[in-house]
Design goal:
Keywords: Membrane, Transmembrane, Transmembrane helix. By secondary structure, the chain is mainly alpha-helical. Helix content is about 75%, strand content about 5%.
Length: about 250
């Protein structure tokens, strides 16, 4: 088991592991900033923030996955189906982003734990969709290892989404849970997979094209998110200063 986990990590170049971890960290910290003041936000402000949370989380998980995949198996020239690669972004937004966003609306602890479990399953769905996009090989999975990755991710996301403290310790705990939930599932899932390569010619997008695609999507969303995050926080601050009586506790 431990050997398989190490293999999943060692088959990815170290610089891409660090890059994927950095992307995931930026995503988690951005989510924490968006979630930080939700308890004092109006219903409208929560819904506005939830839309940004869904976008950031979905695209952030997608970017983390494909940054790591660019550095995966440097001995194999992997190609990707453009349509499935694009669909995996939508899978991330709908099945990862929306449950995390919903945790800002549902306040019950058990409901948040359920959303954490759903988020982990969404990350697994996005991961498997992204792996299905690989064209020139057939991935097969060790079900025990893959299940272990999903269970660990469920625990991490359930921990993260049930953090309600807005002090530094609570926010760091939430961010750490999100990071652990994404990274543990990805690398344990990669440890569970075996790629059976076959030659079908260059029919999909290669590593260079995928790198450009990932960079464009990530930078675009990052720029838009920074603007949206600051505007959202300014709106929250303005509401508090004006003593907005529509604030929801």
């Amino acid at each position: 088991m431990i050997g398989l986990l190490l293999q999943g990590v060692l088959e990815t170049r170290a610089n891409f592991i660090l890059a994927a971890a950095a992307v995931c960290t930026v995503m988690a910290m951005t989510l924490v900033l968006l979630m930080r003041n939700s308890a004092t936000a109006t219903t409208r402000q929560r819904l506005f923030g939830a839309a940004w949370i869904a976008l950031v989380a979905g695209v952030g998980v997608w970017t983390t996955h494909f940054v790591a995949m660019i550095g995966y198996r440097p001995d194999a020239a992997l190609t990707y189906d453009l349509e499935l690669t694009s669909i995996s972004i939508l899978v991330g937004i709908v099945f990862v982003g929306l449950p995390i966003a919903a945790s800002e609306i549902f306040r019950d602890r058990l409901e948040r734990m359920g959303l954490g479990a759903f988020t982990a399953l969404g990350v697994a769905g996005m991961h498997l969709t992204g792996m299905t996009a690989v064209e020139n090989c057939l991935p097969t999975y060790n079900p025990l290892v893959l299940t272990a990755g999903i269970v660990i991710s469920i625990l991490c996301f359930s921990f993260a989404l049930t953090r309600v403290d807005t002090d530094s310790k609570g926010l760091l705990g939430k961010a750490a849970g999100i990071i652990a939930g994404v990274c543990s599932l990805h690398f344990i899932a990669m440890a569970s997979v075996s790629l059976n390569m076959f030659d079908m010619g260059e029919t999909g997008i290669g590593g260079v094209t995928l790198s450009i695609m990932v960079a464009i999507v990530a930078l675009s969303v990052f720029a838009a998110t920074m603007i949206g995050t600051f505007n959202h926080r300014r709106a929250l601050a303005t509401g508090r200063l004006q003593g907005d009586d529509t604030l929801v506790a």
